[in-house]
Design brief:
By secondary structure, the chain is α+β, with helices and mostly antiparallel strands. 52% of the residues lie in helices and 12% in strands. The chain folds into 2 domains: 5-120, Arc Repressor Mutant, subunit A (Orthogonal Bundle), CATH 1.10.10; 129-195. Strands 2-5-4 form a 3-stranded antiparallel sheet.
């Protein structure tokens, strides 16, 4: 069951939707975000994690997906069409950050900021099938651990701070659904590896 709305930082939303980023890395997203937002002392690693958490929400509801070329570092993500029944709930930047008050940028710059489509093309080199599946399995297991941790934290916050239940319950449900989906991915990957005799 997917939530009917997803809470998203409004600046990140406008970067991804209005400028039609299409394909991006979190580092690229961070650099563009800093052009619009004053971090107010938030460190670059903390900002990167903040933006990754926002992107993960969009992954959970099917609005963003990992690029087909999976990487341990510099992973690219692809913005999909807005899922049916999902609407964004835009919020101000978190962690005390503030939107910069700057004049509107000329429309011409939007073209300059568009992603390099060539970076989003599928790699031409053909990798060993078992290696690709094993890499996907490792990354999916890491994603599952992250999702479990997120679910545990939401549940703990709701237990410790009952007044947050109405605010966080949909995020808890989304996180649990994501964990179930990732378990299904792991089962499928392990099954594929077993069938080709490459399961270690």
């Amino acid at each position: 069951m997917k939530p009917s709305s997803v809470t998203i930082d409004e600046v990140l939303y406008h970067i991804l939707m209005e400028e039609e980023s299409g394909c991006f890395t979190v580092m690229e997203l961070r650099d563009r975000y800093l052009k619009r937002v004053d971090p107010n002392g938030v460190s670059l690693p903390d900002l990167r994690m903040y933006l990754y958490d926002q992107v993960r929400k969009m992954i959970n509801c099917g609005w963003v997906e990992h690029h087909s070329e999976r990487k341990a570092r510099g992973q690219r993500f692809v913005v999909l069409q807005q899922p049916d029944g999902i609407s964004p709930k835009l919020t101000q930047p978190g962690k005390g950050m503030q939107v910069k008050q700057t004049p509107a940028e000329p429309k011409q710059q939007a073209v300059d900021m568009s992603p390099d489509i060539s970076k989003c093309e599928k790699p031409k080199e053909k990798k060993n099938t078992a290696e690709v599946l094993q890499q996907m399995l490792r990354e999916t297991r890491l994603d599952l651990l992250t999702s479990y941790g997120e679910t545990e934290r939401y549940a703990q916050m709701i237990q410790d701070l009952p007044e947050l239940k109405a605010t966080l319950e949909s995020d808890l449900v989304t996180s649990r659904d994501n964990s179930s989906r990732l378990l299904g991915h792991i089962n499928a990957l392990e099954s594929a590896l077993q069938k080709i005799g490459a399961m270690g």
